[in-house]
Amino acid sequence: MKLPWNKVSGIITDGAPAMAGDRSGLSTLICNKVIEKGGEAIKLHCIIHQQVLCAKYLKYDHVMKPVVKTINFIRAKALYHCQFKQFLLDIHAEYEDVLYHNDVRWLSRGSALQRFNSLRKEIKEFLETKGQPMRELSDPIWLADLGFLVDITSHLNVLNTSLQGKDAAVNQLYSHLKAFGRKLQLFQRHLSQTQANTIHFPALQEIMNSFSQDNISVQMSRYAADIATLAEEFKRRFQDFAAIEKEISLFSSPFSVDPDDAPEQLQLELIELQCDSELRSRYQQLSLVNFYRQLDKGRFQEIRTQAKKMLSLFGSTYLCEKTFSAMNFNKNRVRTRLSDSHLRDILRIKTTAFVPDQACLLEHRSQFHPSH
C-alpha cells in the first residue's frame, strides 16, 4: 500500500504464536521493520482477549459441569424443553427459560450462570418430577460456590462490556482495567475479614441468608484466595499495557505529569502547556481529541505528535472482530452473486463513521432506476 513504515505507531494481535512470537512473529517482524526505518512501534495483546483468558482462570469445573449438564438435559429434548417452559409459565417464574453456555461467546457464561441461579428452585422441582434429581442443589457449600461464581462472573462481564466499542482510546481501556484491579483488591479485603462482607456478592449473600452461615463462612477465605490469584493473573497478563503506562498518563493527564518524568523532546513544550491557564481551561472543557486538535502546531509540535501516536493505537481487536462478523453475515450461501467489490463496499459502509448525503447523491442521477 506504499505507506511509510516509520509512521506505524503499534500493532495489536490476539496473542497467537504466529502473531506474537519473539523471533518470527508478525508483530516482531513489523516492529523490527519500523525500527529499521527510523520509527518505533508498540506491541500489544488485545485487552478484551486477555480479559477473557483471565476470566477462564476461574474454572470452578465442579460448578460448571453440573450446570451445563443440567441445561443440556432440559434443552436437548424438545419435549422436556417445552414442558420446562410451560412449568415456568404456570408458576409465574421470573424467567421463561434457561440459557445455553457457549465457550466461544465470551459473555454467555455469566448469562447462563445467572439464569440458572435465579431458576435453581424451579429446576430442582422439575428435575425431581423427571426422576433426575440434582443433588448439588441441596448442598449449601456447592450453592455457595455457585453464588460466588455467578457474582464474580457478573463483575467480569461488566468489565468486558466496558472494554468494547469502536471509539475507545487506549487510555480509556486501561483506566477500566486499573479500576477493575482495585475492585479485586476491595473484594479480597471484604471476604478476608473475620465477618465477611458480601455486599458486592448478592448471589452469595442470598445463599448465606438461606442456610446456616457456619457451613459457608469457612469458604470465604478460599474465595478471597481465588480473587487474589485472579488479580495476580490480571497483573501478569497486562504487562504490555503497564509498560506504556507513563505514555498513557502523559496523554490523558498532561497537566498532572512532572516534566522531569516526560521524554526529553516533550519537556519544554510540556512546561509551556502547564503554565498556560487558558489551555488548562480548555482541557477541562473539551474532550481529549478536540483538546489536542486545537493545540497550536508551532508551539506544541512534539506534544501533538505524541497525542497522534496514542490516539492511533488500538487497545483491542474489536473493529477487526466486528468487520469479520459483518462479512460472515453478508457472505452466505444464499447470496451467490455477491462480488468481491460489492462485499468490500458493504463492509466499508458497515464500519465507517461517515453518513452518506443521499440527497446530494440523487441530485447527480438523471435516472433513479436505470433498468426502467
Describe the structure in your own words.
The protein is an all-alpha fold. The protein has 4 domains: 45 residues, no CATH class; 187 residues, no CATH class; 59 residues, no CATH class; 45 residues, no CATH class. Helix content is 63%, strand content 2%. It has 21 helices and 2 strands. A two-stranded parallel ribbon has the order 1-2. Helix 8 runs antiparallel to helix 10. The longest helix has 24 residues. The chain is globular. The mean pLDDT is 86.
Topology:
Layout lengths: L9 E4 L3 H4 L5 H11 L5 E4 L1 H9 L5 H16 L1 H13 L17 H11 L1 H10 L10 H24 L6 H23 L9 H9 L2 H4 L3 H18 L1 H5 L1 H8 L11 H11 L2 H9 L2 H6 L7 H12 L5 H13 L9 H12 L6 H6 L9
Parallel strand pairs: 1-2
Helix pairs in contact: 3-8, 3-12, 4-5, 6-8, 8-10, 9-12, 19-20
What is the percentage of strand-forming residues? under 5%
Number of strands: 2
Largest sheet: 2 strands, parallel
Going across the major beta sheet, what is the strand order?
1-2
Q: How confident overall, as mean pLDDT?
A: 86
Order of helix and strand elements from N to C terminus: EHHEHHHHHHHHHHHHHHHHHHH
Question: Low-confidence segments, ≥5 residues, pLDDT <50?
Answer: none
How would you describe this structure in keywords?
21 helices, globular, 372 residues, 4 domains, mainly alpha
Quick overview of this protein structure:
This protein has about 375 residues and is mainly alpha-helical. It has helices at about 15-20, 25-35, 45-55, 60-75, 80-90, 110-120, 120-130, 140-165, 170-190, 200-210, 215, 220-235, 240-245, 245-250, 265-275, 275-285, 290-295, 300-310, 320-330, 340-350, 360-365, and strands at about 10-15, 40-45.
